[in-house]
User: Fold this.
Amino acid sequence: MDENEFRNVGHQVVDLLADYLASIGRRPLSPRIEPRTLRALFDEPLPQYGIEAEDILKELQEKLLPNCVHVSHPGYFGLITPTPTPIGILADFIASALNQNIGTYVIGPAATEMERRTVRWLCDLIGFGPAAGGNLTSGGTMANLIAVKLGRDFVSDNTVQHRGLRERYTGYVSEERQVSVDKAFDMVGIGRENVRFLPTDDQFRLSLDALESAIAEDKKAGLRPAVLVANAGSTATGSIDPLSKLAEIAAREKMWLHVDAAYGGGVLLSKKRAGVLQGIELAHSVTMDPHKWFFAPLDAGAVLVREERFLTASFGMTPPYLTTTPDRYQFYVHGFEQSRRFRALKVWMSFKRYGAGEIGSWIDRNIGHAEQLYELAGKDIAFECVNKPVMSALCLRYRGKDLEFHQRAAAEIERGGKYWISTTVLKGQPAFRINPVNFRTQREHIAGLFHDLQDICRQTKV
Amino acid sequence: MDENEFRNVGHQVVDLLADYLASIGRRPLSPRIEPRTLRALFDEPLPQYGIEAEDILKELQEKLLPNCVHVSHPGYFGLITPTPTPIGILADFIASALNQNIGTYVIGPAATEMERRTVRWLCDLIGFGPAAGGNLTSGGTMANLIAVKLGRDFVSDNTVQHRGLRERYTGYVSEERQVSVDKAFDMVGIGRENVRFLPTDDQFRLSLDALESAIAEDKKAGLRPAVLVANAGSTATGSIDPLSKLAEIAAREKMWLHVDAAYGGGVLLSKKRAGVLQGIELAHSVTMDPHKWFFAPLDAGAVLVREERFLTASFGMTPPYLTTTPDRYQFYVHGFEQSRRFRALKVWMSFKRYGAGEIGSWIDRNIGHAEQLYELAGKDIAFECVNKPVMSALCLRYRGKDLEFHQRAAAEIERGGKYWISTTVLKGQPAFRINPVNFRTQREHIAGLFHDLQDICRQTKV
Assistant:
């Protein structure tokens, strides 16, 4: 494929995607195809010979596009996968063509500096000082993993990375944590059984009493309290743990404090909720995913560390085939991954195109959507709101019904093709989980969703 | 930014990138700019207000493009970051616009099936049977990490993930391993000190005698041999460890055998080197990065597992907010990451556009380049080839000179702007590390590089 073919096919792709983006609101949100049938569509042996790009594009239009879940549809209130900004999509296209590798300076000098600048912007939002650093990661799971490892290495005085785990460390997090926290403690060798999944108050915030008791008990049993993970925007309800108080406890116990703001970090751009994350600047590390509520295309997670030296202490190995000079900033000695995609470009370009102001106004609109739904549900005695919206996440339930009922109703919403919501379980009770993190969503979509939900719940029998 | 603006700016970006790709060979390969100066170019506070897309593109043309290292330049013989296929670049663009999230079926039904098909193709290349599975990862570092964790969990009967590490496990790998192996053993809690970095033979292949002694010694000391990592294409020389024999030893010791073919996996498409990876199908897991010698844009790594059930046993947790039906394949219970970019599309589209045949012919051409350079250097008594090319990697040294000399000469090559090579240290001796993994490279570039290298080495004084 030479440059002329690239140019011709590239223009076709732009038109195809522009048409796609223009048509999203009119498409059924989810495909109605059996997984088995879908699987069969792609069942072919490894191609031995090539075909024309045009034919591949046709195949995508037949097989891929109709079988996507359109996360940019204004009725998508689902898992926190955003409507990507158009400029972010174009940025990713440029990043792929340049194929800079941020792992090491020599395969991306400007790209390295652009990531550093993007990390600086995120650190500034948190309130971290000049000693801070960080990496863009493939998502919150990687960011939380890196943070938990930093904590493990910090409390062990950087011995575990060399000698292996010899003591029993414990971790603390509320039961509202995202599953990536469990995965991180498993991965670093601490083990999931050694993490205390603590109860929350009526606003789903980690209970300080429960935390204090758990720490005391663990210490009595000879275990070493090591890593405390706070939610700043839990997945289900957007709840925020008491950050400043947790920072005090962590300091007293010489624990590492990590704040998981993978989703909730977006609220730092909000005017409506200014200051709700106060105390986040006291954390040792923060996860904040630009590919969530900053509307960057996947993937752009971030782990941000109050003092960059912690990253270097935990990850700073220099292999002989990577030689360098002191003035070249090398991400590979300040983080886990070696080869890394140029993820910063889409975040950088989104901030340049829209500014913190406009992105913040989308976030405030999403919070407004959650408040609108909270009000609507408050007027219908059959529904009960599980949380008052702090962020955009709202859980509500149809009174007196079990999880299966809620799942069936959500499946019925999915079948309608206009909206998408999920279900969850909170303190043992089922709920619909509705999260508008989409700058295309308008008030009419919230009203429409609630109208359909009322109808469906009245008619659904379990 | 509405769809019309996206269309207009998109067409501009296509033209910009087509011009870029057409001009690569004429550009200086590396920028001549001080890191400090480059850093200052991007030194601005977080933008509060947006600017026009056109102005951002202008800024990129001034600040980013001239300060890239052009990995697609035919004279780039550097770290294994490929010339991305044009169709792969377009595929990534489509992936960003659709923003499917492969973590869970509901945010990407067709994308999930396309990744499964892509994983199947890679497993077929290895010779894995129908029970195999895998994930596309952000790169070899993540793939090696997942593999080492699978090994840790396998030898512990899946207890470590719950209870934490309580025994002392050991790992084995040759000293030619990539640094990601060290990082993986650190991350999973085994510790880098418990990994035996074993000597190699004159072709840089892991010494079986050294391995047997190390295992015996560790067992005598009460340690548990857990994970054996074999190179199939080492970073510096492309050496291949004796895979079948290592599989026997691993089976005997009930160790997990992981093959790191992050770079070398491409040779499975080669006609010239058919069969050199025999035995790879006996591994428990294999790392094979499509973003290396399969020429996909970053990032597309892969961890491939002989039996998918190992992935499920190690990672299969189901959080309450992810509900599912049995016929929907959920990557999140078969791997580490939750949210995942639709990485498969670029690999799938590259295979469709070129077929295994054409990609294999590029790989064979790269092997030919290494052989050409090996012959050229063989004719000049001042040079010594450190390895005979198995793959595309060749190390050679200027006799009697130290590392600093080699680094200065490589820096001089970089300043010339026509070629890029790196340096390394092998068995304590310095060398130039030259690796043509680029389908744009021609024989003339190899001849030109060696000509310049001869000149520079003759003139360089240390």
About this structure: DSSP finds 14 helices and eleven strands in chain B. Chain B has a mean pLDDT of 95. The longest helix of chain B spans residues 344-378.
